[in-house]
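QUALITY CONTROL LOG
STEP: pairwise intake check
CHECKER ROLE: data steward
CRITERIA: each record must contain a sequence immediately followed by its structure tokens, with no blank fields

ENTRY 1 OF 2
RESULT FIELD BELOW
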Amino acid sequence: MGYQAPVKGLPFVAYEKKPRAVAGPDGLTVKARPSVYVREHVDVKIAAFKADKRKNEFVTSRVTFDAQSVGLEHDFHASVQAGSKAAQLLEVAFKNETPVTVAIETSRRFSTRDGGDPISPLKPIHELRGAVGGGTSGKAEVTNENCRNLVVMVNGEFTDELVSDPEEWEELRENRDGSLAPDGWAVFGGAVIPAASTFHGNVDVTAQVESALKKFFGSAKSAPVRAGRPQQRDAHAAESKPWEEWNSDGRFNHGSYLATAIRETYAQAYQMVTNVRLDPAKNRTAVDCLASMLLGMADRIQLNVCENPTAVRSGRSHHEAREWIAFVVANFPGLAFTAEMADPGDAAAIGARNAWARQVIDTAGPLMHAVAGVAEPGSSPTGPDGLPVTRPVAKDPQLTNRFQKLLAHPKVGLERWPGHVHPLLKERFGTEDAHQIEAAVFTAALTQWEADPAAFQAAARAAKQATETAATAA
């Protein structure tokens, strides 16, 4: 496993490599990878090395690192698996007073240290550390209760205790608050789940333009190479066409339709944070997180409405999905974004934001889908009076089920002969075709029939007899 140390190590949130089964956004079981807090330190000195501390049936060594050697204020500690090559390297470095490059993982226990209460895979790692938001300072007593704190890499040598995937570290090194996900995954609470599982759930970010978001929000790091992107090279090429997301030199095309989509979404998130009386300049992380979530919500709507195999954020349909989201948030009072949803790292805010996202997706998606039904003249059904039927009974499953139950009522008994009620429907509505009857008009009649099933059965029989008599007379 190759490892390339950063120029300057900063803490970030990664995710356990081995997924766990949890209840997903729709209550179905999905694979979730819990968050992990990773610290990398380059050329750090060892202040103390103490071996033979027994813990969970394997022997560990306690290591104290010299804070001043990496510009920190307080010395920090971690454990390492005794007998491992990493432990040997640390011990030799301590004796020889030579600096080392290390990675330390703070990962959740399966249950709390003292009480034995299970720890949810979906709880954010910062919360388990007692840290606020994306802060680097946790509380030692909270961390010890909920987490293990282990050295998992020394000078490129990884231990068996490693739980995250170093192959993903490069693209996650700016993930301070746990709002970013690796390629193919989406944030769900304090974990990530497969992006395809998130249509009705939290989609804080999907991976298609993670790199673009990083560049757009001011990152100086290079984005990882993805499918369809040329290999990045030092020479700068001319800007590509707007429908091309990458320039020929492998750099992101800031004049692309995709860049426009990101800018528009960021502006929308900025305004939404402003609308709840928060200062976007002081809540930059909240704006970034909301922009990522809005992009992911539009992904899910586009995938469902257009039935594409993957989301295409540079497409006009994605723009329309974002516009429908904006319309719903602005005009449906119960779906307005609130200040209680803004904090990217607070567990209660994450829960509220996830519930809001589900409702907005479930409202905006059908609205966008309905556009196709009125796109062509004559595509909407008309009633017997020639006027358009805006909401036909045939498209309302609830009304259809109610009518079927009425036919099956013991005092009606016509569930096997629905044609016997057609004369009554034609008498009452001018047609027996459920596609030509307005649901609102039918609801009033159905409510009356449900109140007196025997009278409904008698009316149906009388209408049928009248139709037969008229046919005989003719």
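ENTRY 2 OF 2
RESULT FIELD BELOW
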Amino acid sequence: MKKVKQLLIFPFIFHITSAWCGGDDWLFRVVDIKTETKNCTRIYLESVEASQRFPASCKSFEVLACYSWSWWNPNTPVSRDQHNQAIGFLRHAKTSSTPIRFGEMGTGFGDVIQGKECHASSTALEIMNDIAVYSFFEWP
């Protein structure tokens, strides 16, 4: 019985102690940003720095950011408010023509199509360190 209790407790402890390990970001210019629905915003980015790595290797990068949270995990790492603040940050970057750092945390992009023009999906965006927007696709 003691072994069964330990096995049941381990996933719970692992879940509450998970943390972000780091991510990657690149310099982009926000070309356009359009609201699709209440939860979805389409972001059009253009790479500013040359790189062989996705997504900076793309001439243009389109991200469909649709905020989503899991009913089984109400403590989603990125809140709707944080996501909306990131959208606002991107809108400001577009109007001011200021390049921004845009990246991914963990599995930050889903439904990826690579080429000269790249496309991907995101389930949440978050501003980090007041200078970069990170995309999340799968929750830990």
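INTAKE CHECK: passed for both entries
DESCRIPTIVE NOTE, ENTRY 2: The chain is about 25% helix and 40% strand.
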